[in-house]
Design a protein that fits this description.
Helix content is about 35%, strand content about 25%. It is of the alpha+beta class. The protein binds manganese (II) ion (2 copies).
Length: about 300
Amino acid sequence: MIESYIKSGKLTSKIRDEASKMIKDGTLVIDLVEYVENEILKSGAQIAFPCNVSLNEVAAHYTSPLGDETVIHAGDMVKLDLGAMVDGYIADTAVTIIAAGNIDENYTQDEINLHEEIVEASAAGLEAAIATVRAGIEVSKIGAAVHEAISEYKLNPIFNLTGHSLEQNNLHAGISIPNYDNHDNYVLDEGQAIAIEPFATNGEGIVNDSPGHYIFSYLANKPFRMKNTQRVLKYIQNNHRFVPFSGRWITNEFGERKGNIALKQLSDAMAIYPYAPLREKQDCFVSQKEHTVIVEKEGCTVTTI
Ligand code: MN
Ligand code: MN
């Protein structure tokens, strides 16, 4: 089990670092997400969730739909969040990169300076969190460490986003790792795997749903009249029963029109859960940094370093 966590961690960190080099002016978001997903599959691992590439005010839960024309511009704050699994043991890691290139058309130097601090703050939050992790610690103490580190930058964490425990084939296994002291006195055990993911912003630190659904999770079997919807549900049950999947994978398989009709019907009937992209309430920029760690007696091992 530990070996599989280490294996998926190493692999994911290598792909994260390679893909980060693609984050520059003119890169299509869809090229980035497809590069990441293909690299995971080529390595013989499985995709733990669609590669998320969330820009600027969007904190999380964006991945490209089929034919996505979204382009990265110089100076954009790009969150790359990816996950792979080996034998079902998941590595979940994210990094934020300010896209390279000539920023003049899009941002002032003052804005870029602020954005660099926002990126630094989530990294400092993660570092502080990792330094507190050991068996016997309450999860609220990890949150307190994140909040304190980000506050030093006069910035806020995103209060309504959390890290999470991981179990075999289970990305969000029930325990939340907060980004502030939420008074949750759940105590971590030796051997537990958790993903810690501080977000930082110059805004209020709340995210809300924004339009569109690009990522989904299977929920339950339901009856459908339309043959096409039945077929798509069967396909999801066979291929994506345990971890989140991309709408793009469904439209690739069934065609754009048929795929999207089925995804809508399945969501409406609660056979699948649609995730909305999460946008900062005051439209302020958001950074994120995430590692997966295994809790140990005196500390932890970061699998995605
Ligand atoms: Mn993640
Ligand atoms: Mn995560």
